[in-house]
């Protein structure tokens, strides 16, 4: 949307889709924000101020694909993802996989299930080609400046364990996600705030009544999810090994993609490589936080050096030399067992912020961290946060589509 449209209060074409659908969604039990209600008038026009100072001045992120809403049954903030099916008789892979998950392919209540739950699949009225996937509101997980940054090494390991166990559960069911990358992992950061936060401006409350301080992951554990199952496949391993044509997915740094770009590859070792690449690029270095796949101005996080042997094996050039996900989990657990009490509660990245001067770091950041860890110890909070239970769905537990 152009700046001119933003000031005048005109909606983009993508937003008008949601505004037109708003009355029907309300009948289905979902209320969109004021901006997308019939008869909406921009609140900032009368006051002659910037629209960004007002709640209704914020356009939905990626409005052509996503919209946030409040579920009437429990006042929970959810997200709807619009998915288009060119041929209604032949659903897309993403739609088929999500329907399979909802039908119990992987039980929702399995504590190792980290596939984002789809609460409901709505078919847009008078449009057999468009469906809405209703899911929990999730946010960026990025370890330093995301919506749920890590304070301690233990919190980072909690993230790693959750993602490993989520992929392990998929692999045990002969499923490869096939697009594991940093932005296909998200976090339910709701436990970190006392009140619901705004889906677009994460520094403000949903009702725009003020700001809210972020709480500790150690004391208020969060759950991480795999999203985007548009490339996901369940393989019939009884008829032969799983095969995919090289070059699929967002992370193209996979060695076999480069050595045999026109050939076939086993997707399960590819998945192991990509997991290792995420840990290397976001937790062990700043390689992918600043310049994806570029080695310029890279910072090394020595607090995570202990992960190097495992990650190196996960990223072996020869896919046959990479460990399976079960072997990864066993080795990860052994690594964690070898870490001391103080290591797990140490600062995740003690020297990342170049703008933080020596005095602030020495006399504020590190002493404050020490005091907070004493409080966590006295409160008997585990150094590695446990995995929370999955978000509840208050309706549609049978898995059928709604019309």
UniProtKB/TrEMBL annotation:
GO terms classed as biological process: intracellular signal transduction
Report the InterPro entries cross-referenced here.
Kinase-like_dom_sf, Prot_kinase_dom, Ser/Thr_kinase_AS
Q: Name one GO cellular component term.
A: cytoplasm
**Does Nucleotide-binding appear among the keywords?**
yes
Q: Where is this region: Disordered?
A: 383-403
Keyword terms of this UniProt record:
ATP-binding, Nucleotide-binding
| The Protein kinase domain, residue ranges | 55-336
Q: GO molecular function: any one? A: ATP binding
Q: Where is the composition biased (Basic and acidic residues)?
A: 394-403
The yes or no answer to whether the keyword Zinc is present is: no
Q: PANTHER family annotated for this entry?
A: MAP/MICROTUBULE AFFINITY-REGULATING KINASE, MATERNAL EMBRYONIC LEUCINE ZIPPER KINASE
Q: This protein is called what?
A: Protein kinase domain-containing protein
Q: Which organism is it from?
A: Dendrothele bispora (strain CBS 962.96)
- Organism lineage string: Eukaryota, Fungi, Dikarya, Basidiomycota, Agaricomycotina
């Amino acid at each position: 949307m152009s700046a001119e449209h933003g000031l005048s209060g005109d909606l983009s074409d993508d937003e008008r889709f949601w505004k037109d659908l708003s009355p029907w969604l309300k009948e289905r039990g979902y209320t969109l924000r004021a901006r997308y209600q019939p008869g909406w008038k921009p609140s900032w026009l009368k006051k002659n101020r910037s629209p960004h100072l007002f709640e209704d001045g914020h356009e939905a992120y990626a409005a052509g694909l996503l919209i946030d809403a409040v579920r009437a049954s429990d006042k929970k903030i959810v997200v709807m993802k619009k998915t288009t099916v060119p041929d209604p008789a032949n659903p897309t892979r993403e739609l088929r996989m999500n329907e399979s998950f909802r039908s119990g392919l992987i039980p929702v209540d399995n504590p190792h299930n980290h596939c984002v739950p789809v609460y409901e699949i709505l078919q847009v009225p008078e449009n057999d080609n468009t469906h809405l996937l209703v899911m929990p509101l999730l946010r960026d997980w990025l370890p330093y400046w995301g919506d749920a940054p890590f304070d301690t090494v233990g919190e980072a390991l909690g993230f790693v364990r959750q993602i490993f166990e989520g992929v392990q559960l998929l692999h045990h069911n002969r499923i490869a996600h096939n697009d594991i990358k940093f932005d296909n992992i998200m976090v339910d950061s709701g436990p970190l705030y006392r009140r619901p936060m705004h889906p677009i401006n994460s520094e403000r409350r949903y009702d725009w009544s003020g700001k809210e301080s972020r709480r500790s992951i150690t004391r208020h554990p969060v759950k991480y999810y795999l999203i985007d199952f548009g490339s996901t496949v369940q393989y019939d391993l009884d008829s032969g090994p799983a095969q995919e044509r090289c070059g699929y997915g967002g992370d193209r740094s996979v060695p076999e993609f480069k050595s045999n770009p026109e050939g076939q590859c086993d997707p399960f070792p590819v998945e192991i490589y990509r997991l290792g690449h995420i840990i290397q690029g976001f937790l062990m270095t700043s390689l992918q936080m600043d310049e994806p796949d570029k080695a310029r101005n890279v910072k090394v996080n020595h607090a995570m050096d202990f992960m190097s042997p495992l990650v190196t094996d996960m990223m072996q050039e020869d896919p046959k030399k990479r460990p399976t996900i079960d072997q990864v989990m066993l080795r990860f657990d052994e690594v964690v067992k070898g870490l001391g009490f103080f290591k797990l509660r140490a600062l995740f990245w003690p020297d990342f912020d170049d703008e933080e001067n020596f005095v602030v770091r020495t006399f504020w950041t590190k002493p404050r961290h020490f005091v907070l860890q004493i409080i966590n110890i006295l409160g008997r909070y585990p150094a590695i946060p446990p995995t929370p239970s999955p978000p509840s769905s208050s309706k549609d537990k049978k898995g059928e589509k709604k019309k």
